[in-house]
Amino acid sequence: MSQDQPERHQEVQTQQKEPIKYGDVFQVSGKLADKPVAPQDAGMMQAAETTVFGQTQKGGTAAAMQAAATINERAGLVSHDDLTVTGDQGVAVTATDVPGARVVTETIAGEVVRRYVEATPILQQEGGVGDLHQQGFITIGEALEAASRTTGNKPVERSDAAAIQAAEVRATGSNLVIPGGLAAQAQSAATLNASTREEDKVRLSEVLTDATVKLPADKVATREDAEGVLSAERRNNPNLTAHPAGVAAAIAAAANLNEKVV
């Protein structure tokens, strides 16, 4: 055991001969990629995130920089006061609000290291979600309407009802089932279909058509929404699977498109 320790110590030293650089942490290029992540760089990003969000973001850019800078400092490859990104080539965090969403962009030395969408519920008003259309984003309600067109002839099952309820919760920000709402209709349809002849079963299109109108609030579909809806659909399917063109698939497609917009 004691004979192995010097070898491990030597291996650690070998691994830390080079500092962790920005190119090791983020998808960046040019001069920035070859610069070591320094403690004061991480401090600047922490301050920028705190200014915009009120706190640093868990698992965000500042956290990744701090982790890398700490490793570099402990290895003696940078000092606590080192700063490699300065002046006009500093860090920046911006948040742009659009209807139903917040677009966050984080840059280091002028290069975008992270850009993502935070969805925010909006009350449905006369005129629908036209502003969102202009921005190019797709809402949860619109994704549900898309599902009604692509697989609307499918009878509503328990897994569909669970997925629709999860989607409604995320769109409205409320855990309460809305009387007469999408989730309530889907649950009733699934219960009825369980003891009804095939030709008399309620179809998805009957529940999801005009979903954007039926939802009291809506928001841009995100990857987190897609994962939540997928989990609900799978949990309530006897085979623990989701329909390839069902509710969860529609939310996932919308989320993927929304990420490309930014």
TrEMBL record:
User: Which keywords appear in this protein's UniProt record, sorted alphabetically?
Assistant: Repeat
* Database matches in Pfam families: SMP
Question: According to the UniProt record, where is the region Disordered?
Answer: 1-21
Q: Which InterPro entries does the protein's record reference?
A: LEA_SMP (IPR042971), LEA_SMP_dom (IPR007011)
List residues traversing the bilayer: none
**Ranges for domain SMP:** 20-75, 138-195, 202-260
Which residues lie in Basic and acidic residues bias regions? 1-11
Instruction: Name the PANTHER family on file.
Output: LATE EMBRYOGENESIS ABUNDANT PROTEIN 31-RELATED, SEED MATURATION FAMILY PROTEIN
What family does this chain come from, according to its entry?
Belongs to the LEA type SMP family.
Q: What is this protein called?
A: SMP domain-containing protein
Which organism is the protein's source? Lactuca virosa
